């Protein structure tokens, strides 16, 4: 075969020309174009799945799209798994076996009584909680009980892990373990209906919750029998949950010695037996401590004696020759470790292991105790045989199985940090950065399925948690890329608990790094996730934040996706997208559906127009008081006088209109649109009109009460006192030069309502008002004449003789005026007014019967008569 051209030489005839000329090379194919992720790893995976009644399209580029699921896309009723599928799921629920086991296989010892009791309780349909400290062998006991109960329930045995799971996550995992429903995640109602019919023995290891959450899990699955495994620090079940408690303690002395012998794969010497007895007393018989002690004895790891040259590449001591082995059988040439070293053996065991195993431990410490899958160790460590490190660590008791992966045993991480503190602390961020880069490349590869990525969810989340608080920009960029790549895979694999945690880590590190586009993506995904889970308020907040950030970046495609999801949120919440209610307020109600609050009543039982009412208790403005009916003849003046007294000139308020009668008032129309500023402006204008109206009314009412004080005129005496009428000798007579002039005033005859005509009066020589249209003679005694000021206020009169002034309150208009060519004559009337006598005597006070004083003067060009002139 030609190494350059693929295929045999016999299959290149098609490349030759028909004329027998030289062969022509084919034009290389252009690579297929596909959408790529922001990191440029390759084509994206767009997955469509059904969540409740939503059709969710996981789009890693612009963000997931959600819409109501069409009727034709709804999944059918899920079918149950068969026996073969259940067995495959059980194998996938436990960690894979190590590539090479470095130690002996340890069986379950001295747990027959607990094993029989647990099986008996489960066969009766009872739920049991197995409580024991870390390292007591709970997981090994659960494996044995699961084998005993394989045929008890119709749905068999279901293995679940409660490590970092909530009750809702466990219900969804139980549904997926029993039913075949690919790319389908039921809503809350559908999930409860599906799990109620499941009849299985559920083995749940590493439970992390109790109390009400555990009661919710038990109530949702009445046909299941649970076997929980938890540590003593986990909250206990409630009193009415009917869960049996079984405590698992340490092994006895005999059981610990037997376990140690199986761990070293030989019989113990007397010195080792005494050392094991002291260790049993110190460790309270925990099996994990004796597995670690057996590794110390097997590897000969003691302080100052453990060197890497004494072990081969796989961490085992080379086999000795047969003769030497027979001579040294039963004797130990290596000193035993102390009890302090046996209590914290992680550092000694790490020194005795190979370089690949130590690098694996370093990655596990940097990732918060999570051990990467053995398939990733060669790429992370840089050794092709690094996958064998998992077997070494498992045989030494440094790692334990958790869910579908391995994790550092209890206390191992603290011991390693204490032993390699400074060195590993400096390299912790760099190690996590290396793991994040590797997982980002691996998760973005098209050949990796979302289910495989979900298996490594704990390690990926641990890498994100380690890099979130770092100040280095490179670490932040790696964390953002990892979160952006892994989050869609978690969503497609239906691991929505890991999806949410990944999105929150990504949103936080993107905010710190200042990557606005990535932060908008994570906000959008969190909003879509909240919408799928039924949390509408959280969905609205996330989507609005995403739309705002993408609007700044002018990302049209992302903004459109966000607005579509936000419109769906508004539709499900029952509100219009443009008129959303304020947080904490009640939804808007129809105008007229509820009658307005009754306004306060005044003294006469009526309500003044625009009077204040008590504030409403809700965010909405209170309904305004009844609107006064304003006609063309009256003007409504809003008053804020105390006591509810109506304002001067205010029209009486109309009775309140019944609720729902006719159309809403202007205030209700303003309130219906949610715009309170117009209502506040109208109220301010009404208040201003009330103040101005009050000022004008009070000024008009008090204008004629106070006497006007003017400057001293030339015709008056300097010694004139207040209240003195002046000296008659010095005062000129009416009509003579120097007499005070009376300004021209408009006059006319008034009607009964007080409306006066437009007759004009011109001043005469004596200052009296002379009508321009002739004289009015023969007026009846009761006919009123126009007052100069147009009102009925009293007018003082002066006597030319110098008497005291008298002020007569008028009752009726003054007598009429006459005009003639001769002397003025006074027409007697029924309502006389006081007059001034020209003599020097005292003034006489004439009791008035009503009316006001009026002045009449001589005809133009004439002189006043000798009679008593009327001032």
Automatic annotation (TrEMBL):
Taxonomic superkingdom: Bacteria
A GO molecular function held by the record: ATP binding
Biased composition (Polar residues): 824-837
Keywords per UniProt: ATP-binding, Nucleotide-binding
Compositionally skewed regions (Low complexity) per UniProt: 642-660, 757-799
Annotated segments matching region Disordered: 1-48, 61-111, 579-666, 702-871
Residue ranges with Basic and acidic residues bias: 77-91
Protein name per Swiss-Prot or TrEMBL: ATP-binding protein
Organism encoding this protein: Streptomyces ehimensis
């Amino acid at each position: 075969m030609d190494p350059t051209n693929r295929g045999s030489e016999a299959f290149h005839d098609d490349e030759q020309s028909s004329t027998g000329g030289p062969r022509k090379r084919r034009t290389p194919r252009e690579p297929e174009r596909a959408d790529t992720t922001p990191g440029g790893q390759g084509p994206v995976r767009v997955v469509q799945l059904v969540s409740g009644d939503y059709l969710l399209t996981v789009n890693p580029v612009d963000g997931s799209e959600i819409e109501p699921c069409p009727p034709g896309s709804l999944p059918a009723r899920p079918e149950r798994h068969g026996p073969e599928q259940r067995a495959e799921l059980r194998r996938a629920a436990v960690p894979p076996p190590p590539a090479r086991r470095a130690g002996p296989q340890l069986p379950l010892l001295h747990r027959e009584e607990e094993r029989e009791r647990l099986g008996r309780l489960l066969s009766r349909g009872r739920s049991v909680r197995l409580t024991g400290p870390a390292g007591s062998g709970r997981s090994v006991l659960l494996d044995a009980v699961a084998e005993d109960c394989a045929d008890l329930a119709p749905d068999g045995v279901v293995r679940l892990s409660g490590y970092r799971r909530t009750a809702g996550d466990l219900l969804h995992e139980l549904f997926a373990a029993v039913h075949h429903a690919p790319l389908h995640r039921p809503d809350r109602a559908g999930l409860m209906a599906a799990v109620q019919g499941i009849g299985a023995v559920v083995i749940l290891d590493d439970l992390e919750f109790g109390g009400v959450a555990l009661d919710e899990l038990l109530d949702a699955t009445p046909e299941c029998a649970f076997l929980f495994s938890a540590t003593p620090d986990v909250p206990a079940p409630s009193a009415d949950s009917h869960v049996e408690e079984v405590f698992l303690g340490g092994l006895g002395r005999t059981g610990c010695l037997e376990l140690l012998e199986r761990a070293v794969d030989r019989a113990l010497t007397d010195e080792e037996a005494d050392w094991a007895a002291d260790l049993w007393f110190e460790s309270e018989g925990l099996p994990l401590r004796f597995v670690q002690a057996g590794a110390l004895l097997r590897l000969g790891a003691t302080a100052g004696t453990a060197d890497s040259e004494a072990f081969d590449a796989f961490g085992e001591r080379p086999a000795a020759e047969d003769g030497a082995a027979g001579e040294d059988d039963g004797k130990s040439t290596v000193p035993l470790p102390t009890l302090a070293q046996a209590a914290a053996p992680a550092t000694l065991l790490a020194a005795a292991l190979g370089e690949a195993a130590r690098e694996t431990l370093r990655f596990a410490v940097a990732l918060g105790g999570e051990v990467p899958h053995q398939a990733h160790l060669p790429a992370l460590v840089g050794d092709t045989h690094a996958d064998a490190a998992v077997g070494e660590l498992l045989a030494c008791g440094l790692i334990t199985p958790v869910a579908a992966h391995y994790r550092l045993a209890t206390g191992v991480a603290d011991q390693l940090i204490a032993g390699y503190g400074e060195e590993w602390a400096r390299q912790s961020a760099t190690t996590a950065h290396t793991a994040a880069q590797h997982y980002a490349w691996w998760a973005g590869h098209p050949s990796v399925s979302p289910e495989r990525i979900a298996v490594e969810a704990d390690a990926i989340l641990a890498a994100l948690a380690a890099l979130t608080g770092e100040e280095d920009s490179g670490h932040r960029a790696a964390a953002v890329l990892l979160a952006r790549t892994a989050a869609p895979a978690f969503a497609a694999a239906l691991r929505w608990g890991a999806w949410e945690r990944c999105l929150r880590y990504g949103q936080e590190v993107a905010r710190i790094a200042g990557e606005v586009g990535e932060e908008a993506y994570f906000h959008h995904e969190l909003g879509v996730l909240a919408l799928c889970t039924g949390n509408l308020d959280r969905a609205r907040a996330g989507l609005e934040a995403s739309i705002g950030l993408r609007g700044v970046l002018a990302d049209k495609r992302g903004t459109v996706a966000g607005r579509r999801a936000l419109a769906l949120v508004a539709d499900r919440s029952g509100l219009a997208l443009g008129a959303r209610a304020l947080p904490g307020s009640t939804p808007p109600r129809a105008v007229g559906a509820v009658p307005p609050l009754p306004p306060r009543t005044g003294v006469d039982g009526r309500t003044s127009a625009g009077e204040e009412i008590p504030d409403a208790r809700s965010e909405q403005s209170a309904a305004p008081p009844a609107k006064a009916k304003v006609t063309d003849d009256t003007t409504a003046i809003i008053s804020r006088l105390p006591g509810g007294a109506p304002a001067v000139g205010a029209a009486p308020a109309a009775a309140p209109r019944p609720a729902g009668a006719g159309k809403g008032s202007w205030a209700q129309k303003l309130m219906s649109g949610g715009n309170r500023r117009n209502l506040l402006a109208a109220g301010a204008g009404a208040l201003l009109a009330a103040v101005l109206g009050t000022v004008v009314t009070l000024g008009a009412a008090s204008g004629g009460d106070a006497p006007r004080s003017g400057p001293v005129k030339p015709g008056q005496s300097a010694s004139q006192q207040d209240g003195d009428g002046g000296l008659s000798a010095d005062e000129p007579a009416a009509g003579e030069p120097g007499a005070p002039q009376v300004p021209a005033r408009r006059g006319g005859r008034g009607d009964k309502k007080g409306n006066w005509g437009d007759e004009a009066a011109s001043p005469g020589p004596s200052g009296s008002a002379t009508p321009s249209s002739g004289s009015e003679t023969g007026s009846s005694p009761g006919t009123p004449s126009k007052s100069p000021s147009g009102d009925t206020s009293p007018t003082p009169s002066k006597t030319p003789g110098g008497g005291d002034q008298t002020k007569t309150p008028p009752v009726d208009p003054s007598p009429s005026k006459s005009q003639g060519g001769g002397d003025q004559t006074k027409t007697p009337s029924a309502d006389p007014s006081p007059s001034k006598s020209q003599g020097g005597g005292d003034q006489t006070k004439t009791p008035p019967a009503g009316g006001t004083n009026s002045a009449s003067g001589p005809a133009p060009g004439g002189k006043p008569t000798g009679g008593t002139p009327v001032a």
